[in-house]
Amino acid sequence: MSEYRIEKDSLGDVQVPKEAYWGAQTQRAIHNFPITGLKPYPAFIWGMAVIKRAAAEVNNSLGLFVDKQVGERVVKGEEMAQAIMQAADEVINGRFWDQFVVDPIQAGAGTSHNMNTNEVIANRANEILGFPLDAPNKPVHPNDHVNMAQSTNDTIPTAIRLGCLWRLDEMLQTLDKLANALWEKSREFDDIVKSGRTHLQDAVPVRLGQEFGAYARCIERNREKIEQAAEGLRRLGIGGTATGTGLNAHPEYHTRMVATLSRLTGLKLYESDNLFESMQSMADPVHFSGAMRTLAQDLTRIANDFRLLSSGPSTGLDEIRLPAVQPGSSIMPGKVNPVLAEMLNMAMFQVMGNDMTVLMAGQAGQLELNVMMPIIAYNLFQSMDIIINAVNAFVDKCVVGVKANREKAEGWLAKNAILVTALNPVIGYLKGAEVAKEAMATNRTVREVVIEKGYLTAEEADRLLDVRSLTEGGIHK
């Protein structure tokens, strides 16, 4: 028996694997674009499938599906619409995702991904109607029926927006989880006073809890930026068809599609106020990518601090201890590395690189269309996937298990000559500098030197150099 069946498109016959649900155009894309070996992210599959599901419902409600004679059987237009909706629902729910096989780097605009979707849903719809994959004649056509009133040019940007919104809450909840874990550590470490550091040099005291509280608030602010940036993604240009004019779409199609997509997805969605702009410009996805990049640079900074604060333990700062989750060396016994912080660094570097790709692709559109949308889609969905997975791992395997090394933190502070800063309002900057230099040169404390020089009494020095009070601001006299 043959391992292939014959499918047709406008260029002619194509051999397609017998059990595959895709058709001729997808098979051509497989042949033409063997670039990365990667497949589309589920968010992209879901986004396209929900568009096809909504379009079948809307077009059917507008009376646009007509009966079709196939051999001796007349297939009602209503039957075809219902079969398409059922097939699309199956894809939405995760079935047939292995049938989406076009490389992310493909023909411009995403026609291959759109046709992959059209063909899978059409073949499954025909199967539902009783026509097997290798039937010589089938009622549901991928272009005429599944793609009715659509173009790649309005479905792909809409699917990008929907796909990002599909996982938005999950990503925001992941950031909430990280912020909450950092706040918990902030409270746990609040009584540990340590040396602050600026320029990687000794600075006035801070509490370890204050450092962790700053990390937590930083994540909350980044969450706000991402949520705000996502608002622009809610504006959909579906119905613009090929160039924004809405050619081949019913006048009510755009409005009905946005309402139907809102109902099907449970997402808050808006009609575009200019279908031409929605097709030409990728500014909303670029802006959303930029918000993720900003988060990535802050996560990188926090991961770097974790690595620095846990450095050593014998020859570094060693002010915090990270959970030991795996051996750190193949040659040095007993070595344990900050692997979760290192992982977070690498993950966020990838997100930053993805943002550069999205930025470059966003500016590469011409006239009525940006043809670089497939790579925009892939990088956006990958960035969201990376952030969700990397942050969850960082919280679960690192942050919740961080321990403070009080002895080392307070020990470093005791040697910190910059404590003299608190004495400025009493003895002045120049005398303070004199005290600090002598303390460092003689390996003594500021308290010892300032009392020896007669600038302060022991009681005054103890009161002014109370390290906890120095972390609470104000002028000390």
Structural class: mainly alpha
Order of the strands making up the biggest sheet: 1-2
The CATH H-level superfamily of the largest domain is: Fumarase/aspartase (Central domain)
**Highest CATH level, the class of the largest domain:** Mainly Alpha
Strand tally, please? Answer: 10
Poorly predicted sequence stretches spanning 5 or more consecutive residues:
none
* Terminal-residue CA separation: 95 Å
Please tell me the total number of domains: 3
Rough outline: elongated
Q: How many helices?
A: 18
CATH level-two architecture of the largest domain:
Up-down Bundle
Order of helices and strands: EEHHEEHHHHEEHEHEHHEHHEHHHHHH
User: What does the largest sheet look like?
Assistant: 2 strands, antiparallel
- The CATH topology of the largest domain turns out to be Fumarase C, Chain A, domain 2
Relative strand content: 5-15%
Q: Radius of gyration, Cα only, in angstroms?
A: 31 Å
Query: Quaternary state, please?
Result: single chain
Helix and strand arrangement:
Elements: E1 4-9, E2 12-17, H1 24-32, H2 42-61, E3 68-70, E4 73-75, H3 77-92, H4 111-128, H5 142-146, H6 152-188, E5 193-198, E6 201-207, H7 208-230, E7 235-236, H8 253-265, E8 270-271, H9 275-280, H10 283-309, E9 320-321, H11 339-362, H12 373-397, E10 403-404, H13 406-414, H14 424-427, H15 429-442, H16 446-452, H17 458-464, H18 467-470
Helix pairs in contact: 1-4, 2-3, 2-4, 2-6, 2-8, 3-4, 4-6, 6-7, 6-12, 7-10, 10-11, 10-12, 11-12, 15-16
